[in-house]
Amino acid sequence: MIANLKQSIGQYRFFMDYRFQAYKTELTQLLLQLKSFGVLFLVVLGSSVLGLILLLFLGLGKIIDSSDAPQYGAKMAWLYLLLQSVMLSAMKSAIKNSAQRAFQQTLVKRYWLGLMDIKLLLLSNGWLIASLVIAIDLSINQWLRVPHFLVFLLLQFTLGILCLYKPIALVYGFLLSAMWLMLPFDVSPLTYQYVFVLLFALSTLMVPFNFAAKLDLSSLTGFWLMFFIHNSWTLIWRGALLLCVFMAFEVLLQERANLADIFSILSLAFVVLFSSSLQFDCSHLHQQYSVFFKMQNKQTAFFIGQFVPSLIVLLLSLIGFFALFNQASGLLLLTGIIWCTLQQAIVQKKPAHYALVWMITTGGLLAALT
After folding, report:
1. pLDDT by residue (tens digit) across 262-304?
2. What is the largest CA-CA distance in the chain?
3. What CA–CA distance (Å, rounded) separates 18 from 119?
């Protein structure tokens, strides 16, 4: 019996080493895919890591100390959970080793797979790790004053598991919880977190609506809707990051209202960045299916149609920006459309220069204000 136990432990360690190596390999490939945005864009992301870490801990501070403004703290918690889910969704394939998943199921026990998934999930979830760092530093008296933070920690862990095994529940859960946050009254921070738990629990019981089955794939509208239904996270992560930009803009505007024009240009720059970068996906899809639509004599419409999703995302984002900050501007709208169209053209002709053009245009617009 002891010999069998040792053999089993040895096999598990071997399997653990294999999964960890596969995890590192897939993460490396994921980082290589970011090169399509250009080296300068990666430099921008790398230089902003410290700022992102600072914002992460500041956001946690608002979530913990939310007794004076419970709804605002709950909104921060909702956004925090959304960003965590976006990040984990991008890493999901590496965490689960999806490419070799079926093969592994024939070799090892099912609970071994689940155990390794949880280990790699905890390793990947920087948002939960940051929360745990804060949690360890809290005293018992502080814990007694912020019991909602414990519920938030459990939510972070649970939503990570849902992201791996039932991602559609996250979509329903975030929609339901967003509606809950829009109700015009305040409750205690603990009540907000309990309702989050209830809504996400209910979302796991909801039956997915198969809207895609009713689409006509031979039509251009049906084709693009089908693509975004099956690749919804390409829109969700953009929406989540834009929410971060808008919230940062709101905070900065309260501190320095005299710099509103500069903040507006920076917000427009990120709106254009997140909307026009969608052209990378649309252009790739156009190359894949151009022959199919050429056979239906729709090649011209299909070529033009690949530029429409980015413009729709741009318009919706700007409408949201204008509505949130009451800063409707025809000039800003026109600038955004022209800029987004320029970035789309760069994706088509010189994709390696995409980030450079974006940075030069941003700098030029900021310089024009001074």
Report:
1. 888 888 888 998 899 888 888 888 888 888 778 878 888 888 8
2. 78
3. 13
